[in-house]
Amino acid sequence: MTDEANTLLFLGDVVPHKAFRFKTRYKTVINLECPIVVGEAYPANGKINLSVHSNYLTDIFKSKLEIACLANNHIFDFGLQALNSTIHQLEERGIKWFGIDRKPDERLSHLLYEMNDQKIALIAAVCPSTSPLTEIDGPAFINLLDVDVIISKVEKLRAVVDRIVLYVHWGEEELSYPKKEDIITARKLVDSGVDILIGSHAHSPQAIEKYNGGIIAYNLGNFIMPALKNIPSYFDNNGKPHAFYNKLLMPWNRISWGLLVNMETLSYRIKKYIFLFDRIIELPFTPFDKYIYLKQVTFDDNYDRMVNRHLKKREKFSKIMHYIAKPYIPQKIKKRLWN
């Protein structure tokens, strides 16, 4: 694939908390996983709230960041002021965005992006399983995943555009296998006319497959995501946090796929990235990257058992790493020792 003029690089979740060093010669699309809060903003109640307070997007991507998807479960974490701040920060730098609707009667609106002779429509939806805030006063809305509504929209778009890209915020966190129901849904949407489906939210890269002439990337993983240390969360109506959230980065949280697609031919290539210190580094693929291929029979009990074993292993590893970072004596052992 050498046709740069017709190529887009789709990257994973981005929380741009510092100026990482990254080089690419391709026009880029990201999922912006949090608001960019410059100025005053008020936290949403009862959830884990993510944000950044400086805009490092241009420092990271230079002039190559073309489009940001805003449809996710954190974009409304600090209300309308933060959303407006985010949109201003993007538009001021010439970055297009999609995934937020402003009019209740115009849901699932699309971004029309022209690339040479190609007209590309980008739309986005969020799965209810990710516990999103769906609207804020302003008004501003995100669209929940509704297959019938998306298919209807795709049918209308097919007559006026060359390519349709659908972003879906979904999947189980920390899981490198797509959920069985997500596979069924993704394939149905491609059958209906979606050319490229990009998944986000799992914080772990998942399979990418060519299906019925389209491309499905079930989750690209974290392109940039900080460890979460004492993040004020679960705010009450008075703006007081009732918890401080902590989450270490596991090895799979640092790895992501980059999907490089020729938008004219739909030929594609996959890149592998890791973020370390202040750099984004491209890595070679290894046998450990088996999750990139969707080879399993996905509609039987074997798939479910494989996924459950996979999750249990990761849960054990995560507990060990958290214990190393912050040793403690479990309550049960305390009672035995002191009683």
Strand content: 25-35%
Our measurement of the CA-to-CA distance between the termini, rounded to an integer number of angstroms, reads: 68 Å
Number of strands: 18
* Assembly level: single chain
Can you give the helix content as a percent range?
10-25%
Give me the CATH superfamily: Metallo-dependent phosphatases
What is the CATH T-level topology? Purple Acid Phosphatase, chain A, domain 2
Put simply, the count of helices is 7
Number of domains: 1
CATH class (first level) name: Alpha Beta
H/E series, N to C?
Answer: EEHEHEEEEEHEHEEEEEEHEEEHH
**CATH architectural grouping:** 4-Layer Sandwich
Query: What global shape is seen?
Result: globular
- The Rg value, from CA coordinates, equals 20 Å
Question: Can you summarize the main beta sheet?
Answer: 8 strands, mixed
Please state the average pLDDT score: 94
Structural class: alpha/beta
Poorly predicted ranges:
none
Provide an overview of this structure.
Helices cover 24% and strands 29% of the residues. The chain is α/β, with parallel strands linked by helices and 339 residues long. It has a single domain (4-299), classed as Purple Acid Phosphatase, chain A, domain 2, CATH 3.60.21.10. Strand 16 and strand 17 (268-276) form a beta hairpin. The chain is globular. The mean pLDDT is 94.
Summarize it:
The protein is α/β, with parallel strands linked by helices.
List keywords for this structure.
alpha/beta; 29% strand; 339 residues; 7 helices; 18 strands; Purple Acid Phosphatase, chain A, domain 2; globular
